[in-house]
Write a structure and sequence with these properties.
By secondary structure, the chain is an alpha/beta fold. The chain is built from 11 helices and 10 strands. It has a 5-stranded parallel beta sheet with strand order 2-1-3-4-5, with helices on both faces. It has a 5-stranded parallel beta sheet with strand order 7-6-8-9-10, sandwiched between helices. The longest helix is centred in the last third of the chain and has 22 residues, at 313-334. The protein binds fructose -6-phosphate. Fructose -6-phosphate is lined by residues 53-56, 98-100, 103, 106, 150-151, 228, 232, 348-349. Fructose -6-phosphate binds at residues 53-56, 98-100, 103, 106, 150-151, 228, 232, 348-349.
Length: 352
């Protein structure tokens, strides 16, 4: 059952601390210096291609960033577009990110990858799923069953599992810090859930005409995911952009009726540039909701702030996403939508 929550989605959002703990359990050594994952062996790919759909595609975009930062060429493809991908070369690994392990587009891309001679891996929540059975390797995200059609906790667990995968198979810079960031996440997500202003923000903007989400670097996939969640469960127009792309077109749509959610983490170059983009939308009178750890001066240009605890940029993506999940959830609730079973959508999409 829903354990007292109004919807499975809210229950599953609140299950994230536990899901994240399960994902890490037994996979990090005692010193917090290395990961040790069943079934990875001594895999060290010279290149990685990710294939996935929907929310899992957003997780895969993030996964490829982790590899590229470790100096390993990595690309992400929509599974349904994999036919246009270059062939995997050398010791390439093709990773299908699929919560259900049954998504037809993803299964088909993985089969194509195998046909092209690549080694394949499923990053999945479902033991014994088709993807897990057909791939050479399976990495389980261990989020537990997800009933809500809109993915929530599985996205957080995918991000954590992809960090473990990168740590276990690539020369990730400063692994101890990344591991420490992952270990802090369950407690930080809990603190955020206990003290979020997301329902007040949702109520304030629930009648808006459209919603935009922006972020850069690790926060760009979070912006895309924030928009997808908003569309799926509120039926309202929402779009996610790389923050830098706003001025290349989407800015034409920005008005006082289009709240812009900006994810700004840290106080470095990336944050400074995103704050610059935020100033541009603020100048067009758009309401700005900053999702931030408070280290930049974005709050000066924001109408509302959704705080996240300070951590590493990779881990911050999980935290920022939780705030955006809550905003979508409470917006949909305020609008009286069918949150756990949105119209036209199915939990597992088994046709191409
Ligand atoms: C969005 C959502 C879908 C799935 C997509 C892939 O909330 O749930 O976009 O992420 O259909 O599903 P899996 O991960 O099962 O391959």
């Amino acid at each position: 059952g829903k354990s007292g929550y109004d919807h499975f989605m809210l229950k599953e959002i609140h299950e994230q601390p536990r899901a994240l703990r399960q994902c890490l359990r037994g996979r990090v050594d005692e010193l917090g210096a290395a990961v040790d994952i069943e079934d990875l062996g001594d895999l060290s790919p010279t290149g990685v291609q990710f294939v996935a759909c929907g929310t899992s595609y957003h997780a895969a975009l993030y996964g490829a960033q982790l590899y590229r930062r470790a100096g390993i060429p990595a690309q992400t493809f929509l599974a349904s577009e994999y036919a246009t991908a270059p062939p995997p070369i050398g010791d390439a690994l093709v990773v299908g990110v699929t919560q259900s392990g049954e998504t037809a587009d993803t299964l088909s891309a993985l089969r194509e990858a195998r046909h092209r001679g690549a080694r394949t891996m499923a990053v999945t929540n479902t033991v014994g799923s088709t993807a897990a059975r057909e791939c050479d390797h399976a990495l389980y995200i261990r989020a537990g069953p997800e009933i809500g059609v809109a993915a929530s906790k599985t996205f957080a667990s995918q991000l954590a599992a992809l960090n473990l995968l990168a740590l276990g198979t690539a020369p990730v810079d400063r692994p101890r810090e990344t591991i420490a960031g992952l270990r802090d996440l369950p407690g930080q997500v809990q603190a955020l859930l206990d003290d979020s202003r997301a329902s007040a923000v949702a109520e304030q903007y629930q009648d808006a005409g459209a919603y935009f989400f922006v972020g850069r670097g690790h926060q760009y996939p979070v912006a895309l995911e924030g928009a997808l969640k908003m569309k799926e469960i509120t039926y309202k127009h929402a779009e996610g952009f790389a923050a830098g792309e706003l001025k290349h077109g989407p800015l034409a749509l920005v008005t006082d009726d289009t709240p812009v959610f900006a994810v700004v983490v840290g106080d470095g170059e990336q944050a400074r540039k995103t704050v610059g983009n935020v100033k541009e939308v603020e100048a067009r009178d758009a309401p700005v909701v900053a999702v931030t750890d408070g280290r930049s001066d974005v709050e000066r240009y924001a109408d509302e702030v959704l705080e996240i605890p300070e951590t590493h940029p990779e881990a911050a993506a999980v935290l920022a996403n939780v705030q955006l999940q809550l905003v979508s959830y409470y917006t949909a609730k305020g609008l009286g939508r069918s949150i756990d079973k949105p119209r036209n959508l199915a939990k597992s999409v088994t046709v191409e």
